[in-house]
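User: quick one, fold this
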Amino acid sequence: MADTQQVDPKAERKVARLAQQITSFSKAHGGAEGQVAYLGERGARIVLVGEDGNWGDLVAPSYEIAEKAVEKSGITAHESFDGDFAAKVKTGRYEWSRMAGIQVGGPRND
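Assistant:
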């Protein structure tokens, strides 16, 4: 007897849509690498880092869907967001001011 798997059409469409978004990001930034992080009940976050240092993220409804989308897009996937991978991210003035504001209690309205 043949082994059959149930394919969820809605999940497959979500995988295809996410993979297309990842591919589009990769093309716009000279290539990309990514990492999938589990968010609990909310799903999974796909963090993308372009070869030009720009970054972005997407949220998938499940870790499995996120992994399939990354695989389908063909980008390099990392186990964690550290080391050489994290060093590729270029941050600008906005990110530094946000990080500093969070560390010192946020912006003041004196």
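User: anything notable?
Assistant: The mean pLDDT is 86.
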